[in-house]
Structure formats: structure tokens, C-alpha cells
Amino acid sequence: AQSVSQHNHHVILSEAASLELGCNYSYGGTVNLFWYVQYPGQHLQLLLKYFSGDPLVKGIKGFEAEFIKSKFSFNLRKPSVQWSDTAEYFCAVNAPAGSYQLTFGKGTKLSVIP
Amino acid sequence: SQTIHQWPATLVQPVGSPLSLECTVEGTSNPNLYWYRQAAGRGLQLLFYSVGIGQISSEVPQNLSASRPQDRQFILSSKKLLLSDSGFYLCASTRALNTGELFFGEGSRLTVL
Q: Which chain A residues contact residue B106 at CB under 8 A?
């Protein structure tokens, strides 16, 4: 079975700091990749996705992620975080691509201090 | 976009009692439907998925079952709840994972006492 690893359980940053959340997966074939976000008291929603093409994808609210196939990674980045980015972030992998399987990582809780 | 409705939002049940959590989808037809369980620090665990009416695939052996009696209705059930069934259950829907995103409901929190 596929596995998805998120390296940090809880990240605490000050406003304006840069963010990078790691995500690695174990599947060797073609994959579709997602980052979902869950703001406090809200349901999960899509932040960004990668299906094919440019490995650097841009999502909502200034987030971006880079797919590095050789490293089986899909790290999430934001140059300057805001207090409103406080949330839990989940990496998810659809593997094999186009199948019904969507495996989530355990999530990274981000706390941004004003 | 799709809208996922789940109910009840909160449920407290005694051990050994039955369970029925319901999920309905609006804004799409013939979706793929999913039940996930979310636990703090453990991410989302896929429990069941369905690609059509009456078609259910189970990802983990457990005390729960799922049914899909209608195209946009997905039900999570148990005949006898265990303490370990406590958790936050999420229903999700997508047309296809290789062309779109997974839309989530707001979840049902189950506490088994």
C-alpha cells in the first residue's frame, strides 16, 4: 500500500516567516498530488494540485508546491505566512494516478504567531 | 462545485448500539464517494469508497460497513458500536481524482461511551 509521510507534526512560525512543509510518498509509478488545508472549525478544502506538466504549481492564498519525481516529494511552500494561515495541512497522493485511491499524510499543524 | 451534506453532525452512542451516518451529494452525478475517519495526529484513514450504486470497496477490516442505495447517497453503518469506533467521520466526493479534487463534508463526530 502507498504511504505518505509528512515530516513535521507541528510547525510554529512568526508572521512574515517563510514556510516549507515536507511531503514524501512511496509509490514508484505515476501519481496525482494534492495539498488540502483545514482551517479551524472548517472542513477540508483543496489548496493546490499537481496532475502533470510544470512541476511547480501555484495554489490559493500564495501557496505553491514543487513536485520532484526523483525524490518522491511534493513540498508545500509560502514565502511569507500570515496569521490567517494557521491551519492543518494535509498532503495526499492519488496512486496509481487515475485510480480511486487517495492516501493522506498525517497532517502538519501550522501555528502562525502575530 | 459539489456540496456534501453529512448528518448527524454530532452523535453520542453507547457501546453495542447501532450506527447510521448519512451523506448526500449535490451538484454532480455519478460521483465516486468516500468515507474517511480523521483522528488527531493520524491524518485521514480511508474506510470505504464507492464508484457506483451498490458498489462498495473496503480498505480496512473493521466493525463498520457502508452502503450506497442511491447515486448521491452514501451511508456508514454499524450493527454494534465499539469504543474504538469513536472518531470524526468525513464523507467525500469526486468525479475523478485524475481530473479534479475531492470535496469534503463537514464531518460527523461520533463518541461511543
A: 43
